Each structure stands twice: as C-alpha cells, then as structure tokens.
Amino acid sequence: MKKSLFIISMLFLALASSSQDSIAKHWKINPSGGISWEVQDQESHNDHIEMAGLRVATVLRYGVDKSGSFKLNRGMVWPLLRTIPNNTHASLMRRFEWNIIDMLLVNGRSPENEKVQEITLDGLMRVRSVFSFPHNGQMELKRVLFPSVAKPAFCEHYTLKNIGTNTLTVEIPDAKSRIKTQANKGVSGEYSIVSEIKGQQSIDLKAGEIVSFYAYFAAYKPQEKEMRIDVAQEQEEREALIASYWSKLILETPDPSINAMFAFAKIRATESIYQTQGGLMHGPGGESYYAAIWANDQAEYVNPFFPFLGNKLADESALNSFQHFARFMNDQYKPIPSSIIAEGLDIWNGAGDRGDAAMIAYGAARYALAKGSKIEAQELWPLIEWCLEFCRRNINQGAVVASDSDELEGRFPAGKANLCTSSLYYDALHSAIYLGKDLGKPATQLASYSKQAKEIRSAIELYFGGNVEGFETYKYYEGNNILRSWICMPLSVGIDERKQGTIDALFSPRLWSQNGFLTQAGSETFWDRSTLYALRGIYTCGETEKATEYLKYYSQLRLLGEHVPYAVEAWPEGEQRHLSAESGLYCRIITEGLFGIRPSGLKSFILSPRLPKDWNNMALRKIQAFGKEFDIELTRKNEGEIEVLVSIPGKIVVRKAIKEGKQILVNL
Q1: Which of 178, 226, 230, 195 has its CA nearest to residue 98?
Q2: CB count, 10 Å around CB of 232?
Q3: Which of 644, 597, 658 lies closest to 623, judged by CA?
C-alpha cells in the first residue's frame, strides 16, 4: 500500500514539475534578477503582495482586467499608530483604491484605454502601460510603487512618455487629501492620514519627451509635524536597501528559480522590521501582526537566519526580541508569554504554553552561535539556561516535554505533549553545549545537557514513535492516529531513527498536495512553515535528490505561480498572506539544509554539504555569520566526491575533498 501511494505521489510531482511553464503562466525571471509578467491581450490576473519599511507596511492588491487596465488597492498599515483596544491587531489600517491616473488630463480628457504591458517585482513594483488617444496619440506610463525605508509613507513614482508622433498636452494637478481619525479610537488620540499628488504642471509633451510626478500616502500622530516626502529620494533608498540584501549571502546554483526565490526571500524575511518604542521589532505582517514578537515567528523561525545575512537592523531586532522575552524569566518557572505585543507594552498568551520556552532556547542559542559575538552570547546565556530548565521541569511521565498547545494554537489537536516542542528542546540542548564550551561554562552543566539530550531523543522514539496510517513514523501527540505534517520536526534536528517511514508518509498523497504538505491528512489546510521545515529536514537526513526535486517545485510555485513571489503563511486562513518569517525559513533550507551549516561555536560550524547529483557545483558567497565574511564553494570531483572550498577575503580556510554525505568542522 505504501509503495503504491508513493508511486502516485511521485507521478504527481513529475507532472507538476515537468517544466517551469506548467507553473509559470504569467511570471518569468528577468535578467536583472526580478520577475516580470508580460501581459498578453485579453489576459487577466489578480494577486497581492506585502511590502514594508520601518514605519509602514502595505499589502498591494493588484491586477489587470480583461480590458488591459491596471487595478490597485493599497492596504495601508501604520504599526506605530496604535488603535483601541491596543491588542495584537491594533495598528492603524486603511485601504485606498484611489486611481491617481484619473486625476490627469491629456489633451483635455482623463486617460482611457489603458493596456498594461508589463509588471515587474524586484523589491518594488514597476508597472508599464500604454494609453491611446485620438489622432494617433500614444503615451507610455511607468508606475513605481514602494514603501519608504524609514518614513510612515507609501510612495508612488509616475513617469509619462510621449511615444506617439503628435504632441500631447498633459495637465498634472497638485492634490492633497487629509483625513482625521476619531480621537477616542487612537491610543495617542486623533491621527492624520495624508494623501498627496506632487508635481503640478501643464506641459506640451513632444514626441519622445518625458515628465514625472509623484504621490504618497502617509499618517501621523497628533502634533507630529508632517514630513517632507521626496519620492525620488525615497525610491533611491528603497533600491539601495534591496541591493544591500542582494549583495550579501549570494546563492549560486544551476537552478535559476531556487537562486531567485532565495534572493526574494531575503527581502521579505528582512524588510518587516518596525522602529517601535520598544525598539526594533520584526513582525509577521499580513495586515494583522505588527509591532509585536512571537516565540515561534521571531525567536524560532527567522532570528537564527539573520546573522548569515549580516543586516545590522535585523540582528538588532533579533537581540531585542530575546531581551523582551528575558524580561519574563521568573523564579517560579511560570511560562514566558507566547507573544509580546503593542510595541512591548503588553503580552498575549491566549493559547497557554505552546512550548514557547523550547522555541526561544532553540532560536536564541542558534542565533548566538551564528552571530559570533561573545558579548551577545553572554547576555543571552541566562535566557537560554532558564528556558532549558523550564523544559526540564515540564518533562512528563513519558519523559517528553509537556505543553498546553503548539504553534498552531489549537487550530489542530496537539495533545498534552507534542513532537515539535521536544524536538526543539533536543536541538537547543546541543546548541547550548556548543555555546557553553565557548563561554567557559562548567563542564558538569554541559555534561548534564548532554545527558538530557540523549534522554529526550530516546523519549521521542518511545513516546511519539509509532505506526500511523501504515507508515512507521511519529504520532504528533499521544493518541494521534492521523498523519500530520509536523512529523518532519525530528528530521530537521538530526533525529533520523524513523527517516524512511517519515519521508514516505510526508510524500504520500495523504499529506503531499500541490501546495506542499497538508497540516493534517484529510484536510485541505496547508501552512508553508511545515513544508519549509520538512524540506530542510529531508536535506539534513541526507535525502538530497528527493529534497531538491521538491525544492525546485516549491520554488517555482511560489516565485512564478499564481501567487508570487514569497513563501506564504497558510490557506484557507489568511488567504496565503506573505508573512515575513516564512521567508526566513525558506532561506534556512539553503543555509542549513542544502549547504548543511550547523553552528558549533562562536567561530566554527559543522559543514554537511548536499550537492545534488545533477549539479556540478554550487556556492554561497559573502556569508556574514560567525563574525566573518566568507564563501563556501562546492565542486563535484570524482564520482561520490566533492571538493569543499571555504575562504575569507584573501585567505583559504579549508580546501578539502570529502565523500558525499560526510561532514567537516570549519574553524574561522
């Protein structure tokens, strides 16, 4: 039965990934590294994408209708403008569908008969359209849409070009709208929302000539002075920010979709950071989760990735999140809150203990190791130590870690002890041993952690191991008899006792779908986070070819499919929002899965490279982790042998040929 199910699953994958064109109906990777949709006549399509800056986020709902016109709705979010009640979702939010082009006059009339030619995404949205006018008049319009890097404004840059032969008379208005919100609905009182078109002029535009104007949407607190928004300068800053993401941690593989998806994931993982009164806070987004942190999204998912990119604000937001969680350590070992909300002023713990201490210990230890700063590591050690002790004190009679729920917060059953929490605890113990050695912690303490790690690994097998729906895999909780996607968790932390049965179960039609792994067999629900963990885990346990085939498929689907260009949260909940930390999990498939980087010290890591058989080489360049910038290059040599080259500028650290599947220790 298992074999036939697996064959069906593989046939599905072969059909789904037989060519990029089977997925990429609209989008293609362009030469500059972005993706573009060249709009065909009568082609219509709608989508949504989130973008963010330090004081604003925007979900653009956009598309092209069958007439060829561009449609745009701006879902504006101002995380620092708090509303009442000041809870998790209390950011000032408004939606604007104002069509700026309707405000123009060309030859005395509003432009009509728009035909969108191309839409490009590259950290900004760029839209190129053509309008036709009587007497052979033609005008090209270019829109560039993006959030300000540091101001509470969403910016729009419009450029008109006369591409016809006759002169066009163009009249551009100055227009300004100001909305005042109700004072009793704002934490700070009455907020001002300002929308403005700038660049007023009336001009005869001759053939080939160009004119530009601008628009923006901004919001302010009472008595806050309106800012001067120079949209052209804001565009330069946004483009420079994207370039900074793309100029570090550069992935080179023979697969362009994986390379591009990784480049885009760096944007979404890192841009969603907000300058709150509680310091820099990375937030999931999705028109819901801002100016707040979670033990899973921030501590567990994205913070361990940030040191590899070396973005100063991202690293600062990671450290700040752990400092916030550390505020809640207590001598009674009561649970740390799942989420710290409202710019750090309040908490949310509505699902009880979700295994949050295991999440925080796992993320803080991995972050500290990868960051490579002894000062930060010493600061984080008490938090790691406390969280590990909390887990130890919550070991149940089955010798695994008990919790009230898991990161899905009751959406699906999790029992009184779940597989995720104990797996994270196991990995956190190992990271603490590595970190403790570099910090000179007592050998007796580290020996105790080693003993606890061995015990929890054995307990995971005894408590969770079992036959579920015919597969020798894991019960997600005691009494669970339906396959769950989170059975991938042991694989992601190097527990491989049930590797084959777990992989067979994951890729069976019971769990695999065209959108990745279903949360629970028999449901229609999928959460990308479990797919992203699973792909990393399948690499970790050495199933390189299988992981790569599905990584290719997933990357093409999310980058070039119907909803682009990032990993998503879930469906049907949230309509596949582009939550930020999921993109961090995608990046970790590459750093920790494909390249097999496992931090083992403040200046060292274990390297277990997984070079797919159809690839002769791959590289990860300008890695910023462990306090250094370095490259990793892998080249296929003789059959079954890979040459590993690790170098820092001006120096080769490691040049060694290893057998496939082997690992080496790299000291920087």
Answers
A1: 195
A2: 11
A3: 597
Conformational region of residue 118, where left means phi above 0, alpha means psi within -120 to 50, and beta covers everything else: beta
pLDDT of residue 448: 98
By C-alpha distance, which of 589, 593, 584, 576 is closest to 515?
A: 576
Q: Which 3 state secondary structure label does DSSP give 561?
A: coil
Q: Sign of dihedral through CA atoms 322, 325, 330, 333?
A: negative
Tokens of 552: 């290719």
**Residue entry with tokens 């900004």:** 124
Answer for the pair 266, 241: CB distance below 8 angstroms, yes or no: no
How far, in Å, are 20, 73, 119 from residue 45 at the CA level?
Answer: 19, 14, 11
At 161, list the tokens.
């070009």
d(CA 493, CA 599): 12
d(Cα 190, Cα 178) in Å, to the nearest integer? Answer: 12
- pLDDT (tens digit per residue) in 518-560: 999 999 999 999 999 999 999 999 999 999 999 999 999 999 9
| pLDDT at res. 22 | 66
DSSP labels, 583-606: HHHHHHIIIIIIS-EEEEETTEEE
Q: Residue 222 — left, alpha, or beta (φ > 0 → left; ψ -120 to 50 → alpha)?
A: beta
263-322, pLDDT tens digit by residue?
999 999 999 999 999 999 999 999 999 999 999 999 999 999 999 999 999 999 999 999
Concatenate the DSSP letters of all residues of 23-46 into one string: T-SSEEE-TTSSEEEEPPTT--EE
Amino acid at 50: E
CB 315 within 8 A of CB 378: no
DSSP, res 655: E
- Edge to edge, the sheet with strand 168-172 lists 105-106, 168-172, 201-205
Choose among 586, 525, 60, 530: nearest CA to 287: 60
Answering whether pTM is above 0.85, one says: yes
Prior bond of 413 cis (ω within 30°): no
Q: What CA–CA distance (Å, rounded) separates 162 from 206?
A: 6
Single-letter residue type at 315: D
Mean pLDDT of the chain: 95
CA separation for the pair 450, 278 (Å, rounded): 36
Residue 184 three-state SS: helix
Q: Say whether pLDDT at 144 is over 50.
A: yes
To the nearest 10°, report the CA torsion of 287, 551, 317, 577.
0
Pair 246, 259: CB distance under 8 Å: no
Task: List, in order, residues 6 or more apart from 39 with CB less than 8 Å away.
Answer: 64, 68, 115, 116, 117, 118, 119
pLDDT per residue as tens digits for the range 418-474: 999 999 999 999 999 999 999 999 999 999 999 999 999 999 999 999 999 999 999
Per-residue DSSP letter, 168: E
**Percent of the chain's residues with pLDDT above 70:** 97
CB atoms within 10 A of CB 96: 16
Give residue for tokens 């008990």.
Answer: 402
Closest residue by Cα to residue 302 from 320, 283, 328 = 283
The type of residue at 28 is K
DSSP labels for 460-503? HHHHHEEEETTEEEE-SBTT--S-BGGGGHHHHTT--TTHHHHH
